[in-house]
Specification:
Elements lengths: L4 E4 L9 H17 L7 E4 L1 H9 L8 H16 L2 E2 L5 E2 L1 E7 L9 E5 L5 H9 L2 H18 L5 H15 L9 H19 L7 H15 L3 H9 L8 E7 L10 E6 L11 E6 L3 H6 L5 E2 L2 H7 L6 H4 L1 H18 L3 E8 L2 E9 L4 H13 L5 H7 L12 E2 L7 E4 L1 E4 L2 E7 L2 H9 L4 E5 L7 H6 L2 E4 L7 H9 L3 E3 L4 E4 L4 E4 L2 E4 L3 E5 L4 E4 L4 E2 L5 H13 L3 E5 L3 H9 L5 E5 L7 H12 L3 H25 L4 E5 L13 H11 L3 H10 L12 H6 L1 H22 L4 E6 L5 H22 L6 E6 L2 H5 L1 H4 L5 E4 L1 H9 L7 H9 L16 H15 L4 E4 L7 H10 L3 E4 L4 H14 L2
Parallel strand pairs: 3-4, 16-17, 17-18, 18-19, 26-27, 26-33, 27-28, 28-29, 29-30, 30-31, 31-32, 32-33
Antiparallel strand pairs: 1-2, 2-7, 5-6, 5-7, 8-9, 8-11, 9-10, 11-12, 13-25, 14-24, 15-19, 16-23, 20-21, 21-22, 23-24
Helix pairs in contact: 4-5, 5-7, 6-7, 14-15, 14-19, 15-19, 19-34, 20-22, 21-22, 21-23, 22-26, 26-27, 33-34
The structure holds phosphoenolpyruvate (PEP) and magnesium ion (MG).
Amino acid sequence: MTTMVHLFGGSATTAERAKELLGGKGSNLAEMASIGLPVPPGFTITTEVCTAYYANGESYPAGLAEEVVNGIVHIEGITGKKFGDATNPLLVSVRSGARVSMPGMMDTVLNLGLNDDTVKGLADASGDARFAWDSYRRFIQMYADVVMGLDHAEFEEALEVAKEDKGFFLDTEMSAEDWQKLVAEYQAIVERETGAPFPQEPRDQLWGAIGAVFESWESDRAKVYRRLNSIPAEWGTAVNVQAMVFGNMGDTSATGVAFTRDPATGERAWYGEWLINAQGEDVVAGIRTPQYLTKAARERAGAKPLSMEEAMPETFTELGNVFDTLENHYRDMQDIEFTVERGVLWMLQTRSGKRTAKAALKIAVDMAAEGLISEEEAVLRVDPSALDQLLHPTLDPKAPRDVLTKGLPASPGAASGKIMFDADSTEQAAAKGEAVILVRVETSPEDIHGMHAAKGILTARGGMTSHAAVVARGMGRPCVSGAGGLAIDNNAKVLRIGDRVLNEGDIITLDGGTGEVMAGEVPTLLPELVGDFGTLMTWADKVRRMKVRTNAETPADAQVARDFGAEGIGLCRTEHMFFDADRITAVREMILAEDEAGRRTALAKLLPEQRKDFAGIFGVMAGLPVTIRLLDPPLHEFLPTREEDFATVAAAAGVAVEKLKARANELHEFNPMLGHRGCRLGVTYPEIYEMQARAIFEAACDIAEQSGAAPIPEVMIPLVASRREFDLMKAVVDEAAQAVFAEKGRTLDYLVGTMIELPRAALMAGEIADAAEFFSFGTNDLTQTTIGISRDDAGRFLTQYVDKGIFLTDPFVSIDVEGVGQLIEIATERGRQTRPNIKLGICGEHGGDAPSIHFCEQTGLDYVSASPYRVPIARLAAAQSALKNR
Ligand code: PEP
Ligand code: MG
């Protein structure tokens, strides 16, 4: 292990591998200090210490204690104060800081070092006894909550009672004596709850806080956040110990949070909130309503309390200069925390600001235009999966809105759903496929799982930087916060807004872009790729190597995908066409027929329908490749289950119901996913594939005739395991093609290829490629058959597998590169060896997942295929992969 404690401030320099070792917060504090910005001095205990702590049964590595003492000496040297000194005490903050920011996940202790003696020293040194006792009561409450795990409600109640006794409304009305009395009460609560007095020794306090930070790394809420964001547990968190500066030293002091650009819209305007005479927690906790940073923002909101620009013009100008320095240095939008102590500005944090997808696009495109970053960097700046937010419907502006109330537009997007009042119910309802709006007075980190499961979030309290707002923006959930008109009764599960009463399960709609809350469901409109989105996509397409196709089986879906930039179809699942009400009877008749003649009679009814399906798709994708997969699913999926369905099929086929039922029984399979499906259907009933191939070529010839732009059919055989299977099926397809071409008097180019979705197919790829003209990796089945986990049942236990680190992420969402990835690489290599120009693509769900797309780029596939709404995500991810792979 290198040094365990890294110093910042004074003449300290930045570290190597800073982000990894010091975490985001620590490395940025060190970096800000090194470029001359005003940062209170401090030190960072590295993430390696956290890892070692857990590796050694929750004990600290040898030598850490000495290094921490050195760190304190470093701070003392610069500030001239002494830790634990009764006359001029040094107070510190202790905060966590992982490599990536985990909002609300980890804990913070402020004002550490206060005790019954140092509080008096602080009062004398500052000349402000009220401030000193206020700081002490804050410290006890925070320490009791974060380090000792006591319920903060008890402390809040004591404060409320104290204020009520005095007839006060605001904390700021409390005097030094009032706070001192409260401190005694707080200490009594601690003693009562823990059986021991509040720790008076600052060094004990410090180690208590350090331990609490490390412990919180393994807290449930941190684990949930890591799972949702694919953050490995091995990363660990750093601990930052820093000299306190005080925003609560009277009316020339303040604290605030700000973004260098608007995190919701991306507009180039300083954006933030601040509070006079307060500490940082007051702003984020939503206890007092923060004020606007700029005059323009205040005026726009019609708010009274002065903005920082008006109340502290000089410090505000200084802060603006810091914003510019930071943006030029980091070349990105920054999210900062600052404190003003008696007119002096201090920077407490900077990091790349979380932003909505809309803002991410605007900031990337603007920064490229400003010359701050290149077009290629702009392409790399936008998280492909975040685009999801923009690819979903927005509220139809023409639709009537029954507006119940208006809150803050905390995270954009529209959502409708049933209201639920707690995270657990939300999660349970969402698991059943219900759309839920989570309604809370305010959210806390314990609500994370519910927020993730909800379609939207509504809170009664909290500003634009409240927990709900920050987390919702990060997750891309629409959120309306601080909707003051709400009266929430959690016990009765009732929401009152004015004279309207809503119960659990009632439907509301949120507009996270305007802050409106509406009764019922409001209709939505489809999004378009225009403006910054269009610009960034153009830049992405310039550097992209892989083609992006879509998985679609209707002309409407194909059209959506084409509008989103799809360059063909990578998978058209023909079985979905068989479920149409007017076809299912013929399909069932075909399956239940006892001989080939019976099947052919039924298939003849389906042929014109299939031809129509394919013509529609070829029409939309004119001139582009269209991969059509022949029938794949286990037949049982089509079998009738209801009495009346048996009767209908029996009538259509002219056979007895009993006979049909007997046949259905015969077809029963114990393990249909590994049963009579895929090309096994074509091997036993070639006439099915023959009909489908005929429909494909007839439709293709008709479209070529009508439009002049010949479609390029790529006929795909599913679930192949051997060369012989493929040969048999290819012969059926070729024969149908020749027959149709002879009838129509024209020929067309077409390909016949296979899916690689069984391990055996991947291993035999060299032989199969001798006959197959393309491979498409069916990674849904390939994952299922390689790991041996049923894709339909995995949901019940996979989360635990991810929690316990068996899988880093769900292998059905992101390719299991280590395992399934090997088979893809083997098949690619062996396939290309036999047929160097073989076309290779992927059509499993992974084709729309950014990390999987990255793997496809590295493996050298020719294209990925994604569902229509994920086509732009795939275009951007493919471009980023090409850039990263250079
Ligand atoms: C696959 O298995 O990856 C695939 C695309 O086919 P399906 O999901 O239809 O089984
Ligand atoms: Mg499959």
